[in-house]
Design brief:
mainly alpha
């Protein structure tokens, strides 16, 4: 009886080893076909290996399918969003972005609420690859009242995507209150990019959110300096008093030495409020 059990165990082990080697040989053949320019044959073989028992083989197959690209590759990867191995699933997600397979976008967005840290990073990479279409979708999910319980998860993905979401996200600020915009400003603050500053500064004219814009600009640091100087230059023509004062304050908060000349050009302004703001900002920058 013991001999039979021993023999059966070896038989199972031998079968597993054979399957692993078979999978490895097949993926190596697919990779070889790709190197030889036989893309369609390589793709078909790689797709057949997306359900291989070995996660290592599946991972190599996903990478090859993504490298070959095209609608067929995207469709095959889309079907594998049920993958159980986190590393393989991460690669599938990234390659769906790489192949620009837009039919998978909604399903990718559905993964966000339950995603762990590794999957969140992969999803952010994928949505970034989709460009504005991807950014718009995540922003719409983040802003959806029916998905309010998942808002924090979508917020995390937006932060991970980075500057690419700025144009889509900034539109949410218009016509909303201080409290409604709190989370959105926190996302914008976390994106250290000059583009964010350029997009935010026009909202200094909105009394409801002006204080939040100023605070967000402070968080942007040096990334907000050039946009603020440019905006102050434009104010010499439009002359909106409150906006001008707020821009001057921002340069002081940023301690922007490159903005000293611009500030000094306002030092003889007719408005007491502007002159006082200039004096305060120059003191913040120079320390005297």
């Amino acid at each position: 009886m013991l001999k039979v059990k021993h023999t059966s165990a070896w038989a199972v082990l031998s079968l597993l080893i054979m399957l692993v080697f078979t999978g490895c040989a097949s993926i190596e053949k697919a990779e070889s076909l790709h190197r030889e320019g036989e893309k369609q044959k390589a793709l078909e073989m790689a797709v057949s290996l997306l359900e291989d028992d070995s996660s290592k083989v599946r991972l190599r197959a996903v990478k090859l399918v993504g490298k070959i690209g095209g609608p067929q590759a995207g469709a095959a990867l889309h079907q594998r969003l049920v993958e159980s191995d986190t590393r393989v699933l991460s690669e599938i997600i990234r390659n769906l972005g790489k192949t620009q397979y837009e039919a998978a976008l909604e399903d990718l967005a559905d993964l966000v609420p339950t995603a762990d840290a590794e999957i969140v990073r992969a999803l952010a990479d994928a949505f970034r690859s989709f460009g504005k279409t991807g950014a718009d979708l995540v922003v719409s999910r983040y802003d959806s009242p029916s998905l309010s319980s998942d808002r924090a998860a979508y917020k995390e993905v937006l932060i991970r995507i980075g500057p690419e979401i700025a144009d889509s996200l900034i539109k949410l600020l218009k016509g909303r209150s201080f409290f409604e915009n709190r989370d959105t400003f926190k996302i914008l603050q976390s994106i250290k990019n000059p583009r964010v500053a350029t997009l935010m500064l026009p909202y200094l004219a909105d009394e409801e959110v002006a204080a939040q814009v100023i605070e967000s600009m402070r968080h942007l640091g040096s990334n907000g300096v050039e946009a603020t100087i440019t905006a102050l230059q434009k104010q010499k023509k439009s002359g909106e008093l409150l906006v001008t004062v707020r821009l001057i304050r921002i340069l002081g908060l940023l301690k922007a030495k490159s903005g000293i000349d611009m500030l000094e050009s306002y030092s003889q302004h007719d408005s007491d409020r502007i002159r006082d703001a200039v004096e305060q900002s120059l003191f913040q920058i120079r320390g005297f």
